[in-house]
Amino acid sequence: MSAEPAFLLHRKPYRETSALVDLLTLNNGRIRAVAHGGQRPGSKSRQRLQPFTPLFVSWRGERDLKRLTLMESRGQTALLAGEGLLCGLYANEIATRLLPLELIAGDVFAFYTALLEALPIPSERALALRRYEWALLEALEATPRFCTPDGNPLDPQVRYRFDPQSRAFLPADNGLEARALRYVEQGDWQHAGLANVLKSVMRAALAPHLGSTALRSRELMVALARRRQP
């Protein structure tokens, strides 16, 4: 097959000197493959298979586990540190956890690429992450329904919480304002004061698909926030 743009999502040792890798590809979604020499010290495969590095890859195999036949760099590695690095690790972790193998997800690839460009810029980081999370939900056909479970529109005078079972919203005294949820539905995500609402909606919508195992990247974010407290 011809080389395809990709990013490394996850890598772990496999047998003696190989690596088992999860890659996000442009045309084939997430694939899992063996990278021969991917764990050998000093090998070109190991040097290239780094998080946040744009790659060209090709592979062989018809089953779930492929064999990489080509790994080449196609650009500079995104230089991430601190919170930006943790957000990048989170993006990799949820894609690995959520995307079924070989589910075509071109929008996820596009928003992941845009996310890596935004992560070094604190003012752009959160919104790019929300766009990426939304793309994942769309790929899973799991985006929220901005109505009540029976299909009625949200009452502007009522607060709501997300209901995972129906993917809709239920009245809740301490919930989110219906007006803010309307902005989310319309894609007007740069509206002032919407950041926390967006984060709450995405986290609630993603939770049923992530399962009960805690995200390592999220634990690291909490630890970083605690260290920053006076």
Q: Would you write up a description of this structure?
A:
With 230 residues, the protein is α+β, with helices and mostly antiparallel strands. Helices cover 40% and strands 23% of the residues. The chain is built from seven helices and eight strands, in the order βββαββαααβββααα. A five-stranded mixed β-barrel has the order 1-2-3-5-4. It has a three-stranded antiparallel beta sheet with strand order 7-6-8. It is elongated, with a radius of gyration of 19 Å. The mean pLDDT is 92.
What is the helix content?
25-40%
Mean pLDDT: 92
From the helix content, strand content and strand pairing, which structural class follows?
alpha+beta
From the structure provided, what is the oligomeric state, counting identical versus distinct chains?
Answer: single chain
According to DSSP, the number of beta strands is: 8
Radius of gyration: 19 Å
Strand content: 15-25%
pLDDT < 50 stretches: none
Largest sheet: 5 strands, mixed, barrel
**H and E order:** EEEHEEHHHEEEHHH
> What is the CA-CA span between the terminal residues?
55 Å
Shape, principal axes of CA atoms: elongated
- Tally of helical runs: 7
Sequence of strands across the biggest β-sheet? 1-2-3-5-4
InterPro entries: DNA_rep/recomb_RecO_N, NA-bd_OB-fold, RecO, RecO_C
Organism: Halomonas colorata
Domain DNA replication/recombination mediator RecO N-terminal: 4-72
Pfam family, one: RecO_N
